[in-house]
Amino acid sequence: MELCVALDLPTKQENLDLIHKIKDYDVWLKVGLRTYIRDGEDFLLAIKKINPDFKIFLDLKLYDIPNTMADAAESIMGLGVDMFNIHASAGKRAMKEVMERISSYENRPIVLAVTALTSFSEEEFCEVYEKSIATKADQFAKDAYDSGLDGVVCSAYESESIKNITSKEFMTLTPGIRPFGEDAGDQQRVADVEFALNAQVDFIVVGRPIYRAQNPATVVEKILKKL
Ligand code: C5P
C-alpha cells in the first residue's frame, strides 16, 4: 500500500513548504483542483525540482462528453504525471474513449475512475443516483474495469468488494483516511490505516491529518511505519 499526500493548502508557498518537510519520504503527492487551477504546470515542475522521485497524482476528476474527456486526457500526457482520474459516471463510452486515446503513449499514467465521492452520506448519494453506495460503487467499478481502466477511487469500505468483482490487480485508491482516528471533517465514510490494509487498498490519500499537524513529517513517518 502506498501513501498519497493531498496538497490542498491555500497557497502555493504553503504547499511547497509542506513538500520540503516530507521530501525524503517515499510518498505520492496529490495535486487537486484548487492547486492545479491556481498554480498549473509550473507547480508540477516545482515538485519534481524538490525531489524528482516524487510520483504525482493529478486529481482533476474529469467529467464531460467523451471527446472532450479524451482531449483533456491527451493534454495530461504532456504533463508527466504518474496518475490521473476521471468520473465513472461519465459512462463507459467516455472511459473507453479516454483509454483508447492515450493507449499509444509510452509509460502512460495510471488511470482511475471515481465511483462515489467519500463525502457522500448514504442519503445524499441516493438522492443523486437512486441506488445505495455499495451497489452503485460496485457497478461503476465493473464499468471502469470493462472499459480498460487501471482502478478506481472509492472508500475503504468498498475496496474488498470491488476487487472481488473485478480483479485483485484492479487498483483501489481511498481518500477519507483518518490514519489514527483523527477528526473526519466533511468526510462521511472514514477509515483508519489498519482498515485500509485489511481491505487490500493500493493507495491511501491523506490530507488534513498531515498538513494540519504540528509536524507533518512525523505523521507521514508514523503512517509509513504501519504500511
Ligand atoms: O483532508 P482529507 O484527508 O479529507 O483529503 C482528502 C482528499 O481526497 C481531498 O483532496 C479530496 O478532494 C480528495 N478526494 C476525496 N474523495 C474522493 C476523491 C478525492 O476526498 N472520492
From TrEMBL:
Annotated EC: 4.1.1.23
Catalytic activity: orotidine 5'-phosphate + H(+) = UMP + CO2
Residue span(s) of domain Orotidine 5'-phosphate decarboxylase: 2-223
Source superkingdom: Bacteria
Pfam families per UniProt: OMPdecase
Any one GO molecular function term: orotidine-5'-phosphate decarboxylase activity
Active-site residues, Swiss-Prot/TrEMBL: D59 (for ompdecase activity), K61 (for ompdecase activity), K61 (proton donor), D64 (for ompdecase activity)
InterPro entries: Aldolase_TIM (IPR013785), OMPdecase (IPR014732), OMPdecase_AS (IPR018089), OMPdecase_bac (IPR047596), OMPdeCOase_dom (IPR001754), RibuloseP-bd_barrel (IPR011060)
SUPFAM superfamilies associated with the record: Ribulose-phoshate binding barrel
GO cellular component, one term: cytosol
Positions with a binding annotation for substrate: 8, 30, 59-68, 118, 178, 187, 207-208
Pathway: Pyrimidine metabolism; UMP biosynthesis via de novo pathway; UMP from orotate: step 2/2
Keywords: Decarboxylase, Lyase, Pyrimidine biosynthesis
Enzyme class: lyase
HAMAP family assigned to the protein according to its UniProt record, in alphabetical order: OMPdecase_type1_B
Protein family according to the UniProt entry: Belongs to the OMP decarboxylase family. Type 1 subfamily.
Physiological role: Catalyzes the decarboxylation of orotidine 5'-monophosphate (OMP) to uridine 5'-monophosphate (UMP).
NCBIfam families registered for this protein in UniProt: PRK00230.1 (NF001273), pyrF (TIGR01740)
Subunit structure, as described in the record: Homodimer.
Record protein name field: Orotidine 5'-phosphate decarboxylase
Gene: pyrF
